[in-house]
Specification:
8 helices; mainly alpha; single chain
């Protein structure tokens, strides 16, 4: 297998998908989507749901938060083992400072993990929204130049697999 050729294709398609330096509606949407997968955002939201909602919603929020934290530890271990530098760019300085490694994309893992969990644990309206949102976050991370295309593809696959694993071992909150 020619790794140099694959790396060149990865860099080419990463650059083609970039909108980070192109002002406009598409860039603004990509910024919003790229940030919407932040773990702190989800953990705060899930804490609010757990505090304010009864029974099934509380269980759903607590299980989902636990899975997010466990997966974040795994992703960080992989990132610090692989140590792939993020693509060059100006946008996303907070990500570049706090986590200089790009493979795999934690946002891609998290967004696809959440999509699978929402699909498996319902309710239907949330599953539909998450299945639309997840892939858009994945693309937004490349569009904003903080990940290579291969980072988000690997992250998306990992998120889907870990979501299936969580569904297999944890009880369904809305059963």
């Amino acid at each position: 297998m020619n790794w140099g050729h694959l790396a060149a294709l990865d860099a080419h398609w990463t650059e083609r998908l970039s909108v980070a330096e192109k002002p406009g509606v598409l860039r603004s949407l990509a910024v919003l989507l790229a940030h919407s997968g932040d773990s702190w955002f989800w953990l705060i939201g899930l804490a609010v749901v757990a505090a304010l909602r009864p029974n099934e919603w509380r269980l759903w929020a607590l299980q989902t938060a636990g899975v997010i934290v466990a997966v974040a530890v795994l992703v960080l271990a992989i990132k610090f083992s692989v140590r792939r530098r993020r693509p060059e760019g100006n946008w996303g300085s907070i990500y570049r400072r706090t986590d200089p490694h790009s493979f795999p994309s934690g946002h891609a893992v998290r967004s696809m993990l959440l999509a699978v969990l929402c699909l498996g644990w319902g309710p239907g309206w949330l599953a539909g929204a998450a299945l639309l949102w997840g892939p858009l976050v994945v693309l937004a991370r490349v569009a904003m130049g903080v990940h290579y295309l291969s980072d988000v593809l690997a992250g998306a696959v990992l998120g889907i697999l870990l979501g299936w694993l969580a569904l297999a071992v944890l009880p369904a909150p809305f059963a």
